[in-house]
């Protein structure tokens, strides 16, 4: 009679210490002690399950709070970039509508080249003034770069050549907006801009194992190893928010792009820069193919 009672007492002490991984008390007799033992075992099991649910809930809340903080940081980065890009006092929608009117006028006058130029400028501007805190597809980013490249062809002629190789099977991967344009601008302005004979910018998208890979490559002046490390390790907010200089259309610096990729995908190895001085620069971005889950998580949190 006393043995199961002693066992129950011992188990109660262990539970009081927070140890729920103890053996159940087994009573073979059909009496009140067995009823008490069964009730005790059930109580232990219920408490253990309740604590497990509390822990899971706490972990989920912590994860959501961390994700919300990352979203706020990303929105702050984008808001700053958008503010810098729209420093003009002209209402952006007025300017966009005016460009569309110019397209129609050029078409009516038979000025096909001018019409195409204004149409690409209109598309680029429309993309740059869209709401920047929503993800976009890789296809949308590539279409924006194509519009941008057509504008540069008119401006620079054969000085800068663009080559596209696009894998349509990964075109619906989600990513932050305005990632590729600042990178292509860097290639044109800092990579090729100082060359006497101009150069080539290649934009490649392809499926690589579990990633959708984007490659932006130029045959320009290249970068020193120290400069690459500085760019990839930007942690100061003032440097992250630093406006791009020397003719950039977006006002978004390289540090901003890298930091937004880190925030969006929650990992540091999303982007890689391969370059040597005088040997051109190659930027590789690896977008996880399963990142639709990331998007659905963000939508749920909204």
- Reading off the top of the CATH hierarchy, the class of the largest domain is best stated as Alpha Beta
Structural class: alpha+beta
Spans with pLDDT under 50 lasting ≥5 residues? 293-302
Q: Largest beta sheet: what is the strand line-up?
A: 2-4-5-7-6
Distance between the termini: 59 Å
CATH superfamily of the largest domain: Histidine kinase-like ATPase, C-terminal domain
Tell me the radius of gyration: 29 Å
Number of beta strands: 7
Write down the CATH topology of the largest domain. Heat Shock Protein 90
Mean pLDDT: 79
Just name the CATH architecture of the largest domain. 2-Layer Sandwich
Briefly characterize the structure.
The protein folds into 2 domains: 1-83; 158-302, Heat Shock Protein 90. It has 10 helices and 7 strands.
Characterization of this structure:
By secondary structure, this protein is an alpha+beta fold. It has 2 domains: 1-83; 158-302, Histidine kinase-like ATPase, C-terminal domain (Heat Shock Protein 90, 2-Layer Sandwich), CATH 3.30.565. 56% of the residues lie in helices and 14% in strands. It is built from 10 helices and 7 strands. The chain has helices spanning 2-16, 32-85, 92-108, 112-128, 138-156, 180-192, 225-232, 237-240, 254-265, 292-301; strands at residues 136-137, 160-165, 174-175, 199-208, 211-218, 271-275, 281-288. The strands form 2 sheets. The protein has a 5-stranded mixed beta sheet with strand order 2-4-5-7-6. A hairpin with a 2-residue loop joins strand 4 (199-208) and strand 5. The longest helix is centred in the first third of the chain and has 54 residues, at 32-85. Residues 293-302 have low confidence and may be disordered.
